[in-house]
TrEMBL record:
<keyword id="KW-0732">Signal</keyword>
<dbReference type="InterPro" id="IPR036761">
    <property type="entry name" value="TTHA0802/YceI-like_sf"/>
</dbReference>
<dbReference type="Pfam" id="PF04264">
    <property type="entry name" value="YceI"/>
</dbReference>
<feature type="signal peptide">
    <location>
        <begin position="1"/>
        <end position="20"/>
    </location>
</feature>
<dbReference type="InterPro" id="IPR007372">
    <property type="entry name" value="Lipid/polyisoprenoid-bd_YceI"/>
</dbReference>
<feature type="domain" description="Lipid/polyisoprenoid-binding YceI-like">
    <location>
        <begin position="26"/>
        <end position="176"/>
    </location>
</feature>
<protein>
    <submittedName>
        <fullName>YceI family protein</fullName>
    </submittedName>
</protein>
């Protein structure tokens, strides 16, 4: 067998074996949100988001501890956790959904996906239909998505005193770099 053909066959075999995996995970996905108003822009980011993607069932699950969001200013973080998210009462936000498209994970490339699922924030659940991109390559899977949510849909109240500082709608960005799940 010629060396080039051998390495091509080896690469194809390793990609096929990786994507024969059913479960992909990461515990350091990135979720960020952005609120733009004429008075103040607010953005928070967490790089400690746990997520699982099931290649067979197309189920996707995200879980985040609300206190892991970091802000430019410490006071913003305090207000976020104490006044809006009430993180002591609602410590976790999560999303449980399913990819609608039938994707061959073994094919390298970018795949447009639609995920339908329930987002639970502040103890209030709402169904969303979210567009995203699922990229697959020899290193794993990367899921990215940008979408918007309304705070009122999740029972997050904005006091009228600060209403002009926080937008009613937040822009959410997600990036998850999945690797095949390995049992420990």
């Amino acid at each position: 067998m010629k060396p080039k053909l051998f390495f091509a066959a080896l690469a194809a075999l390793s990609i096929t074996s990786m994507f024969s995996q059913d479960i992909f995970t990461t515990s350091n996905a990135k979720v960020s949100f952005y609120s733009k108003t004429p008075i103040q822009d607010i953005d928070g980011t967490s790089n400690k988001v746990a997520t699982v993607l099931n290649n067979t069932t197309k189920q996707v699950y995200f879980k985040i501890q609300n206190t892991t969001f970091q802000f430019r200013e410490k006071l913003m973080q305090e207000h976020f956790n104490e006044n809006y998210m009430e993180s002591d009462k609602f410590p976790v936000s999560d999303f449980n959904g399913k990819i609608l498209e039938d994707i061959d994970f073994a094919k390298n490339g970018n795949h447009k996906v639609t995920i339908v699922g329930v987002l639970n924030i502040h103890g209030k659940k709402k169904e969303y239909k979210i567009a995203g991109t699922l990229s697959s390559n020899e290193n794993g899977l990367v899921l990215t998505s940008d979408f918007k949510i309304k705070l009122a849909d999740h029972g997050v109240e904005i006091p009228t005193v600060v209403f002009t500082k926080i937008a009613e709608q937040l822009e959410i960005k997600i990036t998850a770099n999945y690797k095949p799940y390995k049992k420990v």
